[in-house]
Amino acid sequence: MMSDNIWQDDLVRLRAVEPADWQHFFEWNQDSYFERTLDETHPFKSQAAVQKWAADQAVAEPKGDDYRWVIESLAGEFAGTINTHHCDRRNGTFEYGVAIRREHWRKGYATEAIRLVLRYFFDDLGYQKVNVHIYDFNAGSVELHRRLGFREEGRLRRMGYAEGSYFDWIVMGMTREEYDQGSGGPGRAG
């Protein structure tokens, strides 16, 4: 059953970054495997730098419709983040990135977080198209997006580099109509 809170579903809630989240981000940044799955591998930051970043994020005003949410379990566990970017109101298109801490993989958290963001952008803000870029080695994310109703639209060759190898980005997208017809939209089961 869906909550009355538009930022919560059966497994997760989305919320703003709080200054106290710095420790979660600091621990997460120590996970080299996870870092290599991101758009770039970031050098380590000091605790003070991560504390400042989290404090800055907590009070930052959004730029247009670019948002960053913390994904947490209903028990209050920090599970990951989801952020929207390249939001273009004129053309009604946006992109997002989602990252889940490894100990929370395969629990349905990414699925619900994505559905919450899609519902907000399609139903409340009136966007008409969403795109995601996924490294070709991330088969789990490709499959997740297929299950949500995304379609593969293309491939950008050699867009990422990690551990001495180049990787392609798989571009996947979903239109408003596909959202309405599929598992992400108003008619979704559950």
Question: Could you characterize the architecture of this molecule?
Answer:
The chain is α+β, with helices and mostly antiparallel strands. It has a single domain (12-181), classed as 3-Layer(aba) Sandwich (Aminopeptidase). It has six helices and seven strands, in the order βαααβββαβαββα. Strands 1-2-3-4-5-7-6 form a seven-stranded mixed beta sheet. The termini are close together.
CATH fold-level topology: Aminopeptidase
Largest sheet composition: 7 strands, mixed
CATH class: Alpha Beta
Structural class: alpha+beta
- How many whole angstroms does the radius of gyration measure? 16 Å
For this structure, what is the CATH homologous superfamily?
Gcn5-related N-acetyltransferase (GNAT)
Mean pLDDT: 90
Quickly count the helices.
6
Q: Report low-confidence residues grouped into runs of 5 or more.
A: 186-190
How large a portion of the residues is in β-strands, by DSSP E? 25-35%
Q: Note the overall shape.
A: globular
Q: Report, as a whole number of angstroms, the end-to-end distance.
A: 6 Å
